[in-house]
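Attaching the record inline, Q. Sequence:
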Amino acid sequence: MLTINVAVLLAVIVVLRLRRRTEARSRFDEKMTVVIVLALGIILAPTEVGQGIAGFLGQLVSGTSQAGQ
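Structure, as predicted:
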Protein backbone atom coordinates (compact mmCIF):
# COMPACT_ATOMS: atom_id res chain seq x y z
CA MET A 1 0.00 0.00 0.00
CA LEU A 2 1.28 3.43 -0.94
CA THR A 3 1.23 6.14 1.71
CA ILE A 4 1.55 9.81 0.85
CA ASN A 5 3.00 12.30 3.26
CA VAL A 6 0.66 15.32 3.31
CA ALA A 7 3.53 17.77 3.70
CA VAL A 8 5.28 16.39 0.63
CA LEU A 9 2.05 16.49 -1.35
CA LEU A 10 1.44 20.13 -0.37
CA ALA A 11 5.03 21.04 -1.22
CA VAL A 12 4.63 19.54 -4.70
CA ILE A 13 1.36 21.44 -5.19
CA VAL A 14 3.01 24.71 -4.11
CA VAL A 15 5.91 24.21 -6.54
CA LEU A 16 3.56 23.42 -9.41
CA ARG A 17 1.34 26.42 -8.65
CA LEU A 18 4.28 28.82 -8.36
CA ARG A 19 5.76 27.69 -11.69
CA ARG A 20 2.77 29.15 -13.55
CA ARG A 21 3.12 32.56 -15.15
CA THR A 22 2.04 35.47 -12.98
CA GLU A 23 -0.20 36.93 -15.67
CA ALA A 24 -2.25 33.73 -15.81
CA ARG A 25 -3.25 33.84 -12.14
CA SER A 26 -6.58 35.12 -10.90
CA ARG A 27 -7.15 36.58 -7.44
CA PHE A 28 -8.80 33.35 -6.36
CA ASP A 29 -5.80 31.37 -7.61
CA GLU A 30 -3.42 33.59 -5.62
CA LYS A 31 -5.55 33.24 -2.48
CA MET A 32 -5.60 29.45 -2.84
CA THR A 33 -1.81 29.42 -3.16
CA VAL A 34 -1.52 31.43 0.06
CA VAL A 35 -3.89 29.07 1.88
CA ILE A 36 -1.94 26.02 0.68
CA VAL A 37 1.39 27.55 1.74
CA LEU A 38 -0.03 28.40 5.18
CA ALA A 39 -1.32 24.84 5.56
CA LEU A 40 2.11 23.52 4.61
CA GLY A 41 3.71 25.78 7.22
CA ILE A 42 1.31 24.62 9.92
CA ILE A 43 2.03 20.98 9.08
CA LEU A 44 5.82 21.44 9.00
CA ALA A 45 6.17 23.68 12.07
CA PRO A 46 6.04 21.01 14.82
CA THR A 47 8.27 18.53 12.96
CA GLU A 48 12.06 18.21 13.18
CA VAL A 49 12.34 19.57 9.64
CA GLY A 50 10.24 22.59 10.58
CA GLN A 51 12.32 23.22 13.70
CA GLY A 52 15.50 22.95 11.64
CA ILE A 53 14.20 25.45 9.09
CA ALA A 54 13.15 27.83 11.87
CA GLY A 55 16.57 27.55 13.51
CA PHE A 56 18.35 28.17 10.21
CA LEU A 57 16.19 31.20 9.42
CA GLY A 58 16.75 32.54 12.95
CA GLN A 59 20.52 32.28 12.54
CA LEU A 60 20.32 33.89 9.11
CA VAL A 61 18.29 36.84 10.40
CA SER A 62 20.56 37.20 13.42
CA GLY A 63 23.67 37.19 11.24
CA THR A 64 22.14 39.68 8.83
CA SER A 65 21.10 42.07 11.61
CA GLN A 66 24.56 41.88 13.23
CA ALA A 67 26.26 42.51 9.88
CA GLY A 68 24.24 45.70 9.47
CA GLN A 69 25.54 47.21 12.71
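The longest helix spans residues 48-67. The chain is about 75% helix and 0% strand.

More tomorrow.
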